[in-house]
Specification:
The protein is 59% helix and 12% strand. By secondary structure, it is an alpha/beta fold.
Length: 630
């Protein structure tokens, strides 16, 4: 029982003594006060109804006393006060600048409370005298108190107005009753009127605090929503700006990729033709120019690669790749470049399969192997490609070399564009290979780390997700690298249609192909006129660019249409600056089932003479393919 009483006392204390949390929030602004008065206006209808009904009851009850003039005059005053209230309500809500004029409206609220309080205080003073007996007193006082209790919520929105209304309406009524009608038990009447006054005042204060708390909370929520909307709009603007920046980067990459490769391709071909026809006196100069052209081509290729990686235009195609087969294909790609330096390339796979894009990962590994060869200070460099198991289903693919190593202070800098460390300053290169490696690893989600011992060698570690193979895959011996045979230019007696919209490149390639013995027809793109000419020319190979400008059919359309019109499969080779993934998407769109036909070989500009010659010979050899488009 004691604990219950204690809990009850605590509850009472909280109800009557503790302020509402929001009521103590900061200093009220003009906007908040205006909102309080607006909330009070919503409760004006209750006050008007209580005052109108109360006045009608009092006049009806006292009409028999014969004081008709007094009652009518008082009734007119009540009606005028009600009209004042309605006009006050209308003018306040129609004022669009009420926040700026809030001080004036507060003075009007005080005046309104004074008028209404005086009207009902006068009723409490005069009307009990009109009749005799306790009934008249009780009826008059009850009507006045009922009106007071019905009107206080309206005035509670501004506490000074509530206090004035209660004092002017209740105090005269209490004084009249106590002085004229109650000779005994006056203390009971005093307690009653005091209770009515403080109940109305306390209730008004609590209603005021609750309303203020609600307004402050709504304003805070509104500010939060506005802040959230601003942040959302800023994020949306940032997203649009990022998309626009990405779009511009992609446009720049496509333009640079096309416009830089075209003149390099023409220059390379003209130099190869010039080199064959040059006399011994100018051959060294031509050789030097050719070396410079290769250096420029390599730099442009790497810059474009860095731009493409950073512009996020790479399409990632993940698949589960068996490590043994994958390492074997990498051995065939990487061993020739190591052997060219007089070294050895070794693979050490695992019976696992890794989750990655095999083409992009191969570019990473080729760059690392090329760097190991380029910066090696050994006469016989050794490069090892190894896979090691790691915890949580991971596999670490590592590229080891026995080169000069990387000083500790340079290991964080080596991935920056154009940075070349102290151990690699004498080697050829531009310092972009590792920048490309880092960008591709980030795109693939591969963890990249480096370890090195100066004078001993370096290891680059690639962390990938993996899973064990159900059956081991047979391997050729990892230490035995395939012997690469340099490609040689062979005669090419074939009829070739060459589609190229760049006149300089078209002329240079035409000269080169004719020097091999080929018969050439060239055109900017495959038009109806060219198709009719090809029906008589009967080309054996189609050499084509991919993109020919707006409105012209692309290279894939040219291959398919020419084969359809000639009713035979025309083997084709792409010689283009367009990305391989764009060509592959276009091919798959036209031929969604890969079993229908193999995609033609793609040569990226600038391409060497031997590579172009070899690709055209392979295409010519495949001329008896069994695909017939109808």
């Amino acid at each position: 029982m004691g604990s219950r009483l204690s809990t009850f006392r605590v509850a009472l204390k909280r109800i009557f003594s503790e302020p509402l949390p929001a009521a103590a929030l900061g200093r009220r602004t003009s906007r908040v006060v205006a909102q309080q008065l607006e909330r009070g206006m919503r409760m004006l209808s209750i006050a008007l109804i209580s005052q109108g009904v109360g006045a009608a009851l009092i006049i009806a009850f006292l009409w028999g006393t014969g004081a008709h003039a007094l009652l009518v005059a008082w009734g007119v005053i009540v009606v005028l006060s009600l009209v004042f209230s309605v006009e006050y309500y209308h003018l306040f809500l129609s004022d669009k600048d009420r926040v700026a004029r809030i001080r004036g409206w507060l003075r009007v609220a005080i005046a309104h409370s004074m008028v209404t309080g005086a009207v009902w205080g006068s009723a409490g003073v005069f009307f009990p005298f009109l009749g005799s007996g306790v009934g008249f007193v009780s009826a008059s006082v009850s009507a006045v108190i009922t009106v007071i209790l019905g009107s206080w919520p309206f005035y509670a929105m501004w506490l000074p107005a509530l206090s004035i209304f209660l004092l002017l309406s209740l105090l005269p009524t209490a004084a009249s009753v106590l002085l004229n009608y109650l000779d005994s038990y006056q203390w009971i009447a005093v307690l009653f009127f005091v209770a009515v006054f403080f109940v109305a005042l306390f209730s008004g204060r609590r209603l005021h605090d609750v309303t203020l708390s609600s307004i402050l909370t709504e304003n805070e929520n509104r500010r939060l929503l506005q802040s959230l909307a601003r942040e959302r709009n800023a994020a949306e603007a940032g997203r649009r700006e990022l998309e626009e920046t990405s779009r511009r980067r992609q446009q720049f990459f496509r333009a640079a990729n096309h416009d830089l490769r075209q003149p390099l391709q023409a220059m390379a071909i003209y130099l190869q033709v010039l080199k064959r026809k040059a006399n011994p006196e100018i051959t060294p100069a031509v050789t030097q120019i050719e070396a410079c052209a290769k250096t420029i081509s390599s730099l442009v290729e790497q810059i474009l690669e860095v731009s493409r990686v950073r512009a996020d235009t790479l399409t990632v195609r993940r698949e589960l790749v068996p490590v043994p087969e994958y390492f074997e294909s990498l051995r065939k790609q990487c061993a020739p470049m190591v052997e060219e330096r007089g070294g050895t390339f070794v693979i050490r796979p695992l019976d696992y399969q890794i989750d990655t894009d095999p083409a992009l990962l191969a570019r990473v590994i080729r760059n690392l192997v090329a760097n190991a060869c380029k910066y090696s200070d050994k006469a016989h460099p050794i490069v090892i490609l190894a896979a090691r198991r790691r915890a949580k289903g991971l596999v670490q693919v590592c590229v080891y070399d026995n080169g000069p190593g990387i000083p500790r202070e340079e290991r964080e800098k080596i991935f920056a564009p154009f940075f070349r460390g102290t151990t690699g300053r004498d080697a050829s290169g531009f310092g972009l290979g590792l920048t490309i490696v880092k960008g591709l690893c980030e795109r693939l989600g591969i963890g990249l780390s480096v370890g090195s011992l100066p004078g001993k060698g370096t290891v680059f570690r690639l962390q990938l997700g993996a899973q064990a193979l159900s059956e081991p895959v047979a391997l050729s011996r990892g230490g035995e690298a395939a012997v690469s045979t340099p490609l040689k230019v062979r005669p090419l007696s074939a009829r070739i249609l060459y589609l190229e919209d760049n006149a300089t490149v078209a002329q240079s390639v035409r000269v080169l192909l004719e020097s091999w013995g080929a018969k050439i027809r060239s055109a900017p793109f495959l038009s109806d006129k060219v198709v009719e000419e090809m029906k008589a020319f009967r080309p054996q190979v189609l050499l084509t660019d991919f993109a020919f400008g707006e409105g012209a059919p692309d290279g894939v359309d040219a291959i398919l249409r020419l084969s359809h019109e000639l009713r035979t499969v025309i083997p084709a080779v792409f010689l283009t600056a367009a990305p391989e993934d764009a060509i592959e998407r276009a091919w798959q769109k036209r031929l969604p089932t890969r079993a229908l036909a193999e995609m033609p070989e793609i040569l990226r500009k600038p391409v060497g003479e031997a590579d172009l010659n070899s690709a055209l010979l392979r295409a010519l050899d495949s001329g008896k393919a069994d695909l017939l488009l109808r």
